[in-house]
Design a protein that fits this description.
The relative contact order is 0.15. Strands 1, 4, 5, 6, 7 and 8 form a six-stranded parallel beta sheet that branches. Helix 1 crosses helix 14 (364-374). By secondary structure, the chain is α/β, with parallel strands linked by helices. It has helices at 42-54, 74-79, 87-91, 105-108, 117-131, 143-152, 173-179, 209-221, 232-241, 265-273, 297-311, 327-333, 340-343, 364-374, 379-398, and strands spanning 58-62, 65-66, 84-85, 97-100, 137-139, 155-161, 182-186, 224-226, 247-251, 277-280, 316-318. The model is unreliable at 105-114 (pLDDT under 50).
Amino acid sequence: MKPKRYDGYQAYDYLGDPEEMAPFDLAPELDRLPAFDNGLTTEQQARADRLIDDNIVVSLHDHPVRFPADMSQVRAYNRTTRQRLGYEGLSRSGMDAVFDNLMNGFACVTSTMGWKWNDAVLDLGMRLCDLAQQDFVILATTVADIERAHRDGLVALVMGLEASTPIENEVDRLDVLYGLGIRQMGIAYSEANCLGSGLREDRDAGLTDFGQTCVRRMNHLGMAVDISHSGDETSLDTIRLSTDPVLITHAGARGVWPTRRMKSDEVIVECARRGGVIGLEAAPHTTLSADHPQHSIESVMDHFTYCVDLVGIEHVAFGPDTIYGDHVALHDQFAKQMSVHKIRSGPDFEEVSHVEGLENPTECFPNIVAWLVKHGYSDDEIGAVIGGNVMRALTEIWGS
């Protein structure tokens, strides 16, 4: 792959004195675990590298930040509101754009996932301040920004929120967030909120009247609507109401692995029928399969092939949902808040220490492209699923 235009900046270097930040021993961006062997020949690897260089590569969902090496410190780390973006890791990822949903202090400081408005704005402001001190990772608010990043060897960061919970029942807060750079937002996460039901709820009441108002406002603003963590009825209501394509930024297919975290065929088909895209998830112990119950890139690609057969390759992408650090330990820290016991409930599986081949934001797309090359996909098909499909949907949602 061609090197990105990275100059060595580390998160919050502008502070100068490290004592201004609470000290944490952070997980490394590179080589935390042994490199994954993708099994390509020299010729295949050259093709994979070319495909990453030639195409716009977009992750629909990741958290490309460094977490503490000791995950027992993660709550204190998140409370600093200064999660460290992995600039060096991103420079070697092959990605031109990444949707970052800010899993910062506002997502984890409370006893539940009840995110607060002030915390959301604070965390967003901190991240934007750090971005403003360098010129390698740029804030993306338009399709042209992503195209510029690809052309100029940069990385475009699309700011989003996994749930609309922080707006409470104030629809105008969507305008404020849009003005601050947010271009994608989920309806609900695990718990229900003022807009609709999340995955945790045993009874999904669908999109509320206020939720309908918010979807219309997001359409008018040009803010992408995400239903990854929404319940089935809320998802379907959202898709059918929205005048723009709706995104499933990070999930998988319930037809492959029957848990709440996965999307039903009906939701995936409706999403695709109205121009949407599903980004395939790789957070630990989510996108498993009967053929590969030990979570790995092979499990994830079982969901890929299923979705391609179900709705066509033009509606499938990737939102790996990875971090720099021990993701399994992170889930253990927040299992109750994230309703892991409910979301994972389903067939038996063997827990793994990490998702082999898709463990962090740096390795995901090189290994995804390698898998696609090895399994005989054409250049056009690979270009579509690693970024082209997302760019098409974003052009409809954001405008050209």
